[in-house]
Design brief:
With 316 residues, the protein is α/β, with parallel strands linked by helices. It is built from 11 helices and 10 strands. Strands 1, 2, 3, 4, 5, 6, 7, 8, 9 and 10 form a 10-stranded mixed β-sheet that branches.
């Protein structure tokens, strides 16, 4: 019976109407220099443009390397993303969105060498560049770098409530982790609103430490059509993120309940300030009560700070 060799690494990506970008992404993955086999798994969420035709053209040249899975109908970002992870055959998974790309041909080798030699680590990240698609300018994503992180550390410096890549552990296009740590992704992961990296980062961190390499290995495109820069309504976005924190809290059996409640309180305080500014006073009242329930100090510090500022202006 013929044995099919499994690749050591699966590069998992998702696409939806990315005909403008997918070729550059594919070239960057195929240019990786490694001493191991890897596969490229792309789950397309029923694109309406030429994305799949471009991928199929690449498959003609790399039939053993690239696998394209096409959804019959659009299933949404999270289900499509999870489909790519569950389709991976490798011991490790490297994630990269179809509109981002890698710029270091030794990226995979560096990260896999580390994970192969350090079994107590479940994942690793690296630094990256952010490209402004309007101006063509590049900036380094993270100036506040770190070395090793546990789950609670990732909660601290992910700073998810600010939605700020420079403060996050690392862009998802740099993320590499051990496959098959999670037997089945929880139901809530399929339903969360528009965010893949933070919940996945936290779930994987339950199984080991994370490592960061201060080397720019990828480019994240910041442009109006990027799935992570869509202009969601502020309150809806904030409530969605509160839901994610509650899901993470349950996933860790409330081990970090106090810290997570602080982040939840910050979100409710932000909703309160937004609602007051827009004269949505019922929303402001409800969000203030929720902020107090999760962390009374958060809103009290805000009010005392506001009063102090008013007194200082009066003295002037």
């Amino acid at each position: 019976m013929e044995t099919i060799n499994k690749p050591l690494v699966s590069i998992c990506s998702t696409t939806y109407n990315l005909e403008k970008y997918i070729a550059e992404a594919l070239d960057s993955w195929l240019n990786q220099k490694t001493n191991f086999d890897y596969e490229i798994v792309i789950c397309d969420d029923s694109s309406k443009d030429n994305t799949t035709k471009i991928i199929e053209k690449y498959i003609e040249s790399y039939p053993e390397k690239i696998r394209l899975l096409k959804a019959e109908k659009n299933q949404g970002m999270l289900p499509n993303f999870i489909w790519s992870l569950e389709s991976a055959r490798g011991k490790y998974i490297a994630v990269c969105d179809g509109d981002d790309y890698w710029i270091d041909e030794n990226k995979l080798q560096m990260q896999i060498d580390f994970l192969e030699s350090n079994s107590e680590f479940s994942s690793c990240y690296s630094n990256s560049l952010i490209k402004n698609e309007l101006t063509g300018e590049f900036v380094v994503a993270k100036n506040q770098v770190w070395d090793i992180a546990s789950s609670v550390d990732l909660l601290e410096h992910d700073d998810f409530h600010n939605d700020n890549i420079p403060l996050s552990p690392g862009h998802i296009s740099t993320f590499v982790f051990r496959n098959n740590l999670i037997e089945k992704y929880p139901d809530w992961f399929y339903k969360i609103d528009g965010v893949t990296d933070f919940p996945l980062n936290m779930m994987i961190s339950k199984f080991g430490k994370a490592k960061f390499f201060n080397t720019n290995t990828s480019v994240y495109r910041n442009h109006p059509k990027s799935s992570s820069t869509i202009d969601y309504k502020f309150i809806k976005m904030s409530l969605g993120r509160i839901n994610i924190y509650n899901c993470i809290n349950r996933y860790f059996d409330y081990e970090y309940d106090k810290k997570i409640r602080i982040f939840i309180a910050k979100h409710y305080l932000n909703i309160f300030k937004f609602a007051v500014k827009n004269k949505q006073f019922n929303v402001a009242l409800i969000s203030a009560l929720h902020s107090i329930k999760n962390n009374p100090n958060e809103i009290s510090q805000y009010f005392f700070g506001s009063i102090k500022n008013r007194f200082q202006k009066v003295k002037l």
